[in-house]
Amino acid sequence: MFIFTLKRLVSGVILLFVMSTATFFLAHAAIPDPTLGLLGSAATPDAQAALAEKIGTDRPVLVQYLDWLGGLVQGDLGTSWKNFQPVGAQIALKLPVTLSVVTFAIVLSAVLGGLLGVLAGLRPDTWIDRVVKAAAVILFALPGFWVALVLVMAFAVQLQWFPAVGYVPPGQSIPDWLRSITLPAISLALGAVVMIAEQLRNAIIQADGQDYMRTLRSRGLSRPRLVTHLLRNSAPPSLTILALMFVGLLSGAIIVEQIFALPGVGPLTQSSSQNGDIPMLLGITVITVVFVVIINLLLDVLLGWINPKVRVK
Amino acid sequence: MKKALAAVSLTAVAALALTACSSGSESPADGGGDVAAKPLSIGNFLDVTSWDPSLADIGFDGPYLSAIYDPLLAIDGQGEPQPALATDWETSEDFLTITMNLRTDAEFSDGAAFDADAAVKSLDYLKAGVRSQEAYRNVESFEAVDEDTIAINLAQRDDTILYYMGLGRSYMMSPDAIDAGTLAETPVGSGPYTMGASSVPGAEYHFDKVADHWAADEFPFDPLTVTPLSDATAMLNGMQSGQFQMIYGDKAGTDLAPDMGWNVASGLATWVGLQFSDRAGATEMGKPLGDLRVRQALNYAFNGPEMVETIAQGVGEATNQVFPVGTPGYVESITGEYAYDLDKAKALLAEAGYADGFAVTMPMAPPFQPWQAIIEQTFGELGIDVTWKETDFMQYMSVAPEYPMFVGVIAMDANPIATVQRQIAEPQWYNPTPGLEAFPEVQTQLDTVLTAEPGDAQIAEVEKLNELVTEQAFFSVWSQSTNTYITTSDFEVTPVTGMMFPTLRQITVAG
Q1: Which residue of A has its CA nearest to B413?
Q2: How far apart are CA B478 and CA B270, in angstroms?
């Protein structure tokens, strides 16, 4: 397991290098002169020249790359070209917001999706199974942004149970923090809930028909113990989906963060793209890749813990 | 761009944040008074670009920076400089020295006194700033004449410096904070508020009122919060749920305003049309544009009033000029000069030897797509074969001027001389080579404008210049778009052309 983890870490570093290098050169190719976007409509040749000197884009791209890579190796993600603040510090401010919402959404998906999936899987072709299947089709078809808008209109504008926009850090008030991320998390989670439920239901039904389950039943195992065996064998596909969703929701959060005006990584990515703030885009890419590597690693470890048969030698 | 498209034209609710003082008068705010505090939570379109005024944009940073910092000069709804930390000012007869008297009762939030030395230090810092330097390009030096007087020494006459300073380029910063280089993280000004400890960067900025600020009564907003959010629907939701008392508005918000009892204020912000970047016809592709008749044909060919109705949903002013409608420099009598006449456009093209049209390549990016179809259709009628070079908005600003003409949504200024300089005389991203050498008449009139006695005489010359560039079809202007601000009935806003979002000085309590 140690060797496996080490290999995954090494491949993660390689992935990080390749992705960040590709992003660096693609971004520079796409935005040959970022000073225009950074200065806006009032850009004058003098101001552009001064800004180019300040941010170092008057140097060859390769020199800029080596400079940036040297910083990255030392854990320095550079300085934003828009507000000249450290990229790492700014992402660190935004990341907790996105992670709050995404984690809450994943927890909701795992709990609700798991519950519905188990109920439907253990009672196939009953009313609950049919409800889950119908809900899966309907909720999966609904666009997330539309769900978010409906939730805002109903629970924020009309009932005023939750704020329509804005974010409260947990350090200020835990109840207000939860209120500020509940609607965004539900908006993000709905699709994931039904996907997890549907996946788990199918896996349970499939596993329940396997020979080993028949054998276990014939040995007279109690219902709870049978369900435990069933879940151990049905859970891995759902966990894999959950892990993939975590990564997917990180990008899906962009729209939800915009609708709920949450100061997460999404709006930062969007504004950095619009402004041509390449160091910020690179920083976000690096952090995202790091998350993908960590999540996949955790998934492998978790799967091995749940089901020793899938442990990688 | 999105903002310009979304803007609406309703009657502006005008109420000056500063009382109506003309240049040289005493500042209205000498403390005292007893104004009831009103909570104000603003939904702004963008986050603050930087708390360091030398690095900040004028665009949407107004409400943030004006809370923390006092400017030397403010600005009114007509773009006229107004007293703030500078109580009055005088320009020398040779126009090369501006002497300003300063307030003596202002203090920075770190306890340092505001005086002439502090002002000079801030101005030197702003002159060196990558974004703030635009206001001070003709400044030779700043000088502390005495404790409460400064002199701005110019290398050449500059009729726009006071306008740019008022627009948001003269915020005064604590000398110690400038030396420490910490303004971007910890802003220290002498403004009516300080940054609240509960602020969440990028999410919600809370400001603590400075009780003994020299103009405390002009800022009765307490508590004051500014929330950046770039989604128009989110802003409207926040307004409907009572979280905001002021937002950047769009059509949906404007339509909802009467039912909700909200105030709506609109101000002209951008002109929309074709920018001729090769009006001299210096390039092979741009050669047809070198012929006045072709440029005029492209003015006659577009139906501005109809485009306002169909594309801008009735929001904006149909016009053929780059000077904001109704401001000094704008000439009402020539607005009909290029009334829609496709036959005349065809005839002019034929006269110029382009009866069968010509081929042209133009850049296109998503924000400009609403006009793409009408251009294709109109050019098709004229026989002009247009090839679109698709790009994104970031690229658009870089590549657009490489083509002889492109669709422009270009910011305007309230100050007529600033308009002359930015739209006609000086290189800008949308006009990198003004090419005035090919238009000696325009150059001569421009020189006359820049040497005329400030005031009515200069405005008269600006109007002549405007008539000349309109006659010469320097642009094909279709309309002017507005920025809109929606407030609850408790507040009123005075929009300022040149400022995308008003400062706190343009927001007043209603009634």
Answers
A1: A42
A2: 11
B58/A contact by beta carbon, under 8 A: yes
Q: How buried is B313 (Cβ within 10 angstroms: 0-12 exposed, 13-18 middle, 19+ buried)?
A: middle
pLDDT tens digit at each of 511 positions of chain B: 333 333 323 222 222 222 222 233 333 333 344 568 899 999 998 889 899 999 998 889 999 999 999 999 999 999 999 999 999 999 999 999 999 999 999 999 999 999 999 999 999 999 999 889 989 999 999 999 999 999 999 999 999 999 999 999 999 999 999 999 999 889 999 999 999 988 888 888 999 999 999 999 999 999 999 999 878 888 999 999 999 999 998 888 999 999 999 999 999 999 999 999 999 999 999 999 999 999 999 999 999 999 999 998 888 999 999 999 999 999 999 998 999 999 999 999 999 999 999 999 999 998 899 999 999 999 999 999 999 999 877 678 878 888 999 999 999 999 999 999 999 999 888 888 888 999 999 999 999 999 999 999 999 999 999 999 999 999 999 999 999 999 999 999 999 999 999 999 999 999 7
Q: Which residues of A touch B234 (CB under 8 A)?
A: 164-165, 258-261
Give the residue from B492, B509, B511, B501 showing the smallest Cα distance to B11.
Answer: B492
Full-model pTM: 0.81
Q: How far is CA B217 from CA A97, B133, B225, B478, in A?
A: 37, 32, 18, 43
Give the C-alpha separation, B67 to B52, whole Å: 13
Instruction: Write out the H or E segment, with its range, that includes residue A182.
Output: helix A174-208
Pick the residue from chain A with its C-alpha nearest to B411.
A41
The tokens describing B503, both together, are 């400062």
**B237 reaches A (C-beta below 8 A):** yes
The three-state DSSP-derived secondary structure of B379-416 is HHHHCCEEEEEECCHHHHHHHHHHCCEEEEEEECCCCH
Q: Are residues B427 and B492 in the same domain?
A: no
Q: Using an 8 Å Cβ cutoff, are A201 and B271 in contact?
A: no
Q: Is B158 on the interface with A (CB under 8 A)?
A: no
Specify whether B103 is located in the same domain as B162: yes
Q: Is B264 on the interface with A (CB under 8 A)?
A: no
Number of domains in chain B: 2
B83 and B150 assigned to the same domain: yes
The residue segments making up the domain with residue B129 are 2-27+49-192+252-262+488-509
Q: How far is A244 from chain B (nearest CA, A)?
A: 28
> Cα distance from B251 to chain A (closest Cα, Å)?
17
User: Strands B359-364 and B385-390: what pairing?
Assistant: parallel
Indicate if ipTM > 0.90: no
The reply to whether residue A273 touches residue B394, judged by beta carbons under 8 angstroms, is: yes
Q: Are B74 and B166 in contact (CB under 8 A)?
A: yes
* Any domain includes B172: yes
- Shared domain for B157 and B176, answered yes or no, is yes
Contact B428, B422 (CB under 8 A): yes
State the DSSP string of A206-240: HHHTSHHHHHHHHTT--HHHHHHHHHHHHHHHHHH
* Cβ contacts of A305-310, under 8 Å, gap ≥ 24: A306/A232, A306/A235, A306/A236, A306/A239, A307/A232, A307/A233, A307/A235, A307/A236, A310/A236
User: Is any Cβ of chain A less than 8 angstroms from the Cβ of B380?
Assistant: no
Measuring CA to CA, which residue among B177, B153, B196, B173 is closest to residue B85? B173
Selected for mutation to probe chain A from B225, B227, B241, B244 (highest A CB count within 10 Å) is: B241
Residue B321 and residue B398 in one domain: yes
CATH code at position B385: 3.10.105.10
Q: Which of A34, A43, A172 sits opposite B429 (nearest CB)?
A: A43
Pick the residue from chain A with its C-alpha nearest to B133: A47
**φ, ψ for residue B389, nearest 5 deg:** -105, 100
